[in-house]
Amino acid sequence: MSQIQEYQIELLVGDITTLPVDAIVNAANKTLLAGLGGVDLAIHSAAGPGLQTECWTLNGCETGEAKITGGHALPAKHIIHTVGPVYTGAEEEPLLLAECYRNSLNLAKENDLHSIAFPAISAGSYGYPAEEAAQITVKAIDAWQKENPSYDIRVIVVCFDEEMLQVYRQAMGLL
Ligand code: ADP
Questions:
Q1: What pLDDT score was predicted for residue 175?
Q2: Residue nearest to atom 9 of ligand 1 (CA)
Q3: From first to last of its 175 residues, what are the pLDDT tens digits of the chain?
Q4: 39 CA distance to ligand 1 centroid (A)?
Q5: Residue 63 Cβ contacting ligand 1 at under 6 Å
Q6: How far apart are the CA of 25 and the centre of ligand 1, in A?
Q7: 39, 40, 83, 99, best to mutate for ligand 1 pocket (most atoms within 8 Å of CB)
Q8: Which positions ≥6 away from 6 have C-beta within 8 Å?
Q9: Could you tell me which of 24, 39, 168, 172 has the fewest CB atoms within 10 Å of its CB?
Q10: Looking at the domain 10-171, which fold is it?
Q11: What gap in Å lies between CA 147 and CA 140, rounded to an integer?
Q12: What residues does each domain of the chain span?
């Protein structure tokens, strides 16, 4: 009999900026200033100019690290900004991508947040192959949940389209 791994991760398809959760995660760039596209631009546009003002005070963010701001005009209470690796195929990139998830979850716990929604970090303009990114995401979230078994937090991964949803379903063994 084969064992079925059940993950405590919710998958949603849609626009992360609409979610009324404790924190949404931004796939930001190292400056933490509004990007030119992708989920970063969508978050800054929906949150309003107060977000950019707050981000100026944070002095940027290194790849794999995470910083928190208020949610401003978003339905989410907070935004956790993390910087994924730009994909080149280098050896350290899976670890850096996993660190984005781990450090974001650590920051959520430190701030007593109990629901968090992630986009597919690095899987857009930063070029990470979706299948690899999805496997790293699922493993990193699962490892964190196993290290923090008594901390109650709803973890959502938001897929921007149906295609990405199928990639995540595959990574979670649901297909
Ligand atoms: P990165 O620069 O880290 O690759 P991107 O923003 O370019 O980040 O893309 C990351 C993922 O976020 C992609 O799968 C993209 O389709 C998705 N995305 C873009 N806008 C949104 C949004 N409003 N809500 C959820 N996901 C989004």
A1: 83
A2: 124
A3: 556 678 999 999 999 999 999 999 999 999 999 989 999 999 999 999 999 999 999 999 999 999 999 999 999 999 999 999 999 999 999 999 999 999 999 999 999 999 999 999 999 999 999 999 999 999 999 999 999 999 999 999 999 999 999 999 999 999 8
A4: 4
A5: no
A6: 11
A7: 39
A8: none
A9: 172
A10: Leucine Aminopeptidase, subunit E; domain 1 (3.40.220)
A11: 11
A12: 10-171
Q: What does the block give as tokens for 121? A: 């970090």
The tokens describing 54, both together, are: 């707050």
Q: Encoding tokens for residue 40?
A: 């970063």
Does 106 sit in the ligand 1 pocket, CB within 6 Å? no
Length of the chain: 175
